[in-house]
Amino acid sequence: MPELPEVETVRLGLAPVMEGARFLKVEARRPDLRWPLPRDFVKRLEGKSVTGLGRRAKYLLADLSSGEVLLMHLGMSGSFRVATDGKDRVQGEYHHPRSEDRAHDHIVFHMSSGARVTFNDPRRFGFMKLVPRGSLDDEKMLSALGPEPLGNAFDAAMLARACRGRKTSLKAALSDQRVVAGLGNIYVCEALHRARLSPRRRASTLAQRSGAPSEKAERLVQAIKDVLHDAIRAGGSSLRDHRRTDGELGDFQHNFRVYDHEGAACVTPDCRGVVRRIVQTGRSTFFCPVCQV
Questions:
Q1: Is 219 tagged catalytic?
Q2: What is the DSSP letter of 237?
Q3: What pLDDT does 6 receive?
Q4: How many whole angstroms separate alpha carbon 87 and alpha carbon 98?
Q5: Active-site option among 11, 58, 129, 166
Q6: Distance between CA atoms of residues 263 and 257, nearest Å
Q7: For 114-145, what is each residue's pLDDT tens digit?
Q8: 17: nearest Cα among 118, 122, 128, 136
Q9: CB atoms within 10 A of CB 196
């Protein structure tokens, strides 16, 4: 499933052709994705303009001139293709190419910008919802999300408060969308390695007895921000199902320090450790047992 940098890369690719443009025609080629499409989906979109295209965690949010928000999620295999000059360009991808099978083109937006935006989703785990802007904070998909890791509000003090008293591992805590929104398995592993913190460390150690953030929390917050910024600049990670809107693969997978590097020498200067793989909460964790403590 695409993580925050991949979704942000998709947003950056869609914004130039969707923001400020109207839906001239909407094709809903099936009545459902993960769930049924909203009632009168096509009618509620056609003729409306996109006043802004944002992101919350792994969700895309298109503000509409009608006062509604089009909430979109890529699911496991969803991708957007944009055609502006007769050529389709996919917005964001991973190791294995995105589906090129047009049988899975489920939603098509014809925009007044001249672009045709197509949502393709073979597994149909993605979804689209229409939510009144005033009710967005109460939307069940968004209401329980923690802070945005790239937002100004996300700092060591906030992370320490969220982890204080938690007996779970640091890896499990960071993967909890209620603690911090948008992080997934890849970037949790990478951030923990940059911060030199063990994924097995108890999450509560990010807070001092007084509740103030520890030095470890300061390091970790900076590592999270750095790894996400680096991944966005690289266009995301090309692992399985992420393709940029221009059809090119993201490049950040070439910069992984530990993820999927089991048995490789640790890249931390002066560290003689070897990357290990363990399983935590059903997911693979990659880390260096020597420099991550």
A1: no
A2: -
A3: 86
A4: 16
A5: 58
A6: 12
A7: 999 999 999 999 999 999 999 999 999 999 99
A8: 118
A9: 18
pLDDT at 105: 96
Decide if 240 is catalytic. Answer: no
CA gap 138, 118 in Å, rounded? 29
The parts of the chain modelled with pLDDT lower than 70 are 1, 86, 89-100, 235-254
- Active-site residue 140, yes or no? no
Question: What backbone torsions phi and psi does residue 156 show, to the nearest 5 degrees?
Answer: -60, -35
Specify the 3-state DSSP secondary structure of 61: strand
Write out pLDDT tens, residues 242-282: 444 544 444 455 578 999 999 999 999 999 999 999 999 99
Vertex 195 angle, CA 189 and 201, to 5° = 70
User: What domains are defined for the chain?
Assistant: 4-138 (3.20.190.10), 156-287 (1.10.8.50)
Residues with Cβ within 8 Å of 40's Cβ and at least 6 positions away in sequence, in order, are none
State how far the alpha carbon of 79 is from the alpha carbons of 14, 29, 91, 179, 208, in Å.
Answer: 11, 16, 7, 27, 43
Catalytic residue among 161, 248, 283, 289: 283
Cα three-residue angle 272-278-279, rounded to 5 degrees: 160
What is the reported pLDDT for 290?
98
The DSSP 8-state label assigned to residue 130 in this structure reads E
11 among known catalytic residues = no
